[in-house]
Amino acid sequence: MKKDLLTFCDWPQAELQALLELALRVKQKPQDYGRTLEGKSVVALFEKPSLRTRVSFDIGINRLGGHMVYLDSQAGKLSGREAAHDMGANLACWADAIVARVYSHKTLEQMAETARVPVINALCDLYHPCQALADYLTLKEVYNEVQEPVLAYVGDGNNVTHSLLLLGAILGTEVRVITPKGHEIAAWIRDKAENLASQNGGRLVFSQDLAAAEGADVLYTDTWVSMGDKTPIEQAREVFMPYQLNRALMERTGAGHVMHCQPAHRDLEITSELIDSECSLLLRQAENRMHAQNAILISLLGQPAS
């Protein structure tokens, strides 16, 4: 039976831990996996522009011996041309998996309903699971176990925040989310994360006060204005500048590392000084996108879809 990756919410802790271990092995011994996707093709459907997601999937699939077909739904005039149900069903006639970077999570759900092959969420309005897995892979490399560091997310509550929180809750990590008033995560995501944390030993903190980040090992942030958001940057600056990741906040919290999923707006949500410093994990996160995604592909395509 085929399995999709839309959110990670339905993946048990043991399975996620095994996925991280697999990602480490793929990274350390890529030669052992060079024919894993031999003879398989993956369609990558992108409604939104991308650097890290597109390149890491394309090169990663190639390194596994597979073939990626890239579909730009804007340039190819696919967006709105036909229903997502029909696109999923048709793509599954030829492809062994579908990777989709879309505006709406509903699009992924509709494609997954009809596609007979795995559908992988490469980003939507609600979640960014591939990024989150790469982030926890990075934490595992640096701290040996993902349960060891305290991770504090500071900034706008968005799709990246959601996936970091949900994955951390399942893995048993302490995750603190500090957002300005009016920019909190969705209430139903918080409820889901708290339920998952209670089942798996995760520890969650939600606050508007930067004091909640004190004692954290890692500070994480994301852009203040997400792709497609028309909010003027000056307006965002007024709200978020107190939440900027900078040297002063690192010293106040005692954190040893900073993370950002990129693209980063230098000297807005994070200073250039931190991006280019030894405490920055940004490039390791970017590199680990490929290894995490390859582990996902191996896991989902290990057996033929039924």
Automatic annotation (TrEMBL):
EC primary class: transferase
Catalysed conversion reaction: carbamoyl phosphate + L-ornithine = L-citrulline + phosphate + H(+)
Pfam family, one: OTCace_N
Key words, A-Z: Transferase
Gene3D superfamilies per UniProt: Aspartate/ornithine carbamoyltransferase (3.40.50.1370)
Annotated ranges, domain Aspartate/ornithine carbamoyltransferase Asp/Orn-binding: 151-299
EC number: 2.1.3.3
GO biological process: citrulline biosynthetic process; L-arginine biosynthetic process via ornithine
Domain annotation Aspartate/ornithine carbamoyltransferase carbamoyl-P binding: ranges: 3-141
Record-level Gene Ontology MF annotations: amino acid binding; ornithine carbamoyltransferase activity
InterPro entries named in the record: Asp/Orn_carbamoyltranf_P-bd (IPR006132), Asp/Orn_carbamoylTrfase (IPR006130), Asp/Orn_carbamoylTrfase_sf (IPR036901), Asp_carbamoyltransf_Asp/Orn-bd (IPR006131), Orn/put_carbamltrans (IPR002292)
NCBIfam families: orni_carb_tr, PRK00779.1, PRK14805.1
Family membership noted in the UniProt record: Belongs to the aspartate/ornithine carbamoyltransferase superfamily. OTCase family.
Protein name: Ornithine carbamoyltransferase
